[in-house]
Amino acid sequence: QVQLVESGGGLVQAGGSLRLSCAASGLTFSAYAMGWFRQAPGKEREFVAAITRGADSTYHADSVKGRFTISRDNAKNTVYLQMNSLKPEDTAVYYCAARFRPDNNYMGSTSTYNYWGQGTQVTVSS
After folding, report:
1. 126: which DSSP letter?
2. b/e sequence 76-85, b meaning 16+ C-beta within 10 Å
3. What pLDDT does residue 118 have?
4. Side-chain-side CA neighbours of residue 64 (13 Å)
5. Which of 9, 122, 18 is nearest to 69 (CA)?
6. 120: helix, coil or strand?
7. 119 vs 7: CA distance, rounded Å
8. Are strands 120-125 and 10-13 parallel, antiparallel or unpaired?
9. How far is C-alpha 86 from the geometric centre of its chain's CA atoms?
10. What is the mean pLDDT of the chain?
11. Which residues have C-beta within 8 Å of that of residue 13, sequence separation ≥ 6?
C-alpha cells in the first residue's frame, strides 16, 4: 500500500530553520506531483508548496515565499521542505501529499491529492 512518512519536525525558535522530509513507498514516485500542506489548531488545512513530477516547476504560498523551498529526489522517493526564517505563525502540523494528475492545475487544492501522510508537528517559539 501507499505510504507517505514525514519527518524532521520539532521545536525551533523564531528565525530558525528546519528541513522536513517525506519518504514515499508503494507508488511510482516520479509519476506523482508532491505537495506540502499545514494545519494549525482550529484552522483549515492550507497549501504550503508543491512540485511537479520532474521538478521542473515549483509553487509556494505567498506566506512562505522567500523562506520555504520545496524540492524532490526521485531516486530516493523523497520530497523535502526547507524552512528558513521560521515565524511563530508557521506553527502547525505539516503534511505531505501525492497527486496523480496529467496537468498542473489546482496544485494548491487539497481535493486534487490522492494520498496523504500522517503529518509532523512544527512548533516555532517566539
Report:
1. -
2. ebbbbbebee
3. 97
4. 25
5. 18
6. strand
7. 8
8. parallel
9. 15
10. 97
11. 124, 125
